[in-house]
DNA sequence: AAGTTGACCCCGA
DNA sequence: TTCGGGGCCAACT
């Protein structure tokens, strides 16, 4: 096995989870952290997103917002409006940097992935 | 090796 | 209601 792994398993787990978010849905950092068994490590989820550019796979980071449904990570995209535009493209309405009807579009990995 | 940072979250004033 | 501070934990410098 070659040393292809450049990041912790936690990061990879986050990326894999984020990839499971359906199109047109959103979730929060805390929800992912909780799903991964680290409810106190929500900040690490954001950190993993920051490092997602290093991932070999594409990570739909735009589908991850904070618990308020606010696009807190928009400033980390190449373009300031990229996150918002991607969400709008998927049918997620965004207004004033926050997802409209966030609770309605919220996708909980705990709920959706725990039982198949 | 030790201190700082951060795409968060919770709570009190 | 808005604002500020503390906790959290792994990566980064």
TrEMBL record:
<dbReference type="Pfam" id="PF01035">
    <property type="entry name" value="DNA_binding_1"/>
</dbReference>
<dbReference type="GO" id="GO:0006281">
    <property type="term" value="P:DNA repair"/>
</dbReference>
<dbReference type="InterPro" id="IPR052520">
    <property type="entry name" value="ATL_DNA_repair"/>
</dbReference>
<dbReference type="InterPro" id="IPR036217">
    <property type="entry name" value="MethylDNA_cys_MeTrfase_DNAb"/>
</dbReference>
<dbReference type="InterPro" id="IPR036388">
    <property type="entry name" value="WH-like_DNA-bd_sf"/>
</dbReference>
<feature type="domain" description="Methylated-DNA-[protein]-cysteine S-methyltransferase DNA binding">
    <location>
        <begin position="9"/>
        <end position="92"/>
    </location>
</feature>
<protein>
    <submittedName>
        <fullName>MGMT family protein</fullName>
    </submittedName>
</protein>
<dbReference type="InterPro" id="IPR014048">
    <property type="entry name" value="MethylDNA_cys_MeTrfase_DNA-bd"/>
</dbReference>
<dbReference type="GO" id="GO:0003824">
    <property type="term" value="F:catalytic activity"/>
</dbReference>
<keyword id="KW-0227">DNA damage</keyword>
């Amino acid at each position: 096995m070659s040393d292809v792994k450049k990041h912790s398993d936690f990061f990879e787990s986050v990326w894999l989870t984020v990839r499971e978010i359906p199109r047109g849905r959103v979730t929060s950092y805390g929800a992912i952290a909780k799903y991964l068994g680290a409810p106190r490590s929500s900040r690490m989820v954001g950190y993993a997103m920051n490092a997602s550019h290093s991932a070999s796979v594409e990570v739909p980071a735009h589908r991850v917002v904070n618990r308020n449904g606010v696009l807190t990570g928009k400033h980390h995209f190449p373009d300031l409006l990229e996150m918002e535009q991607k969400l709008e493209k998927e049918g997620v309405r965004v207004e004033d940097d926050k997802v409209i009807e966030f609770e309605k579009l919220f996708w909980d990995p705990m709920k959706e992935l725990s039982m198949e």
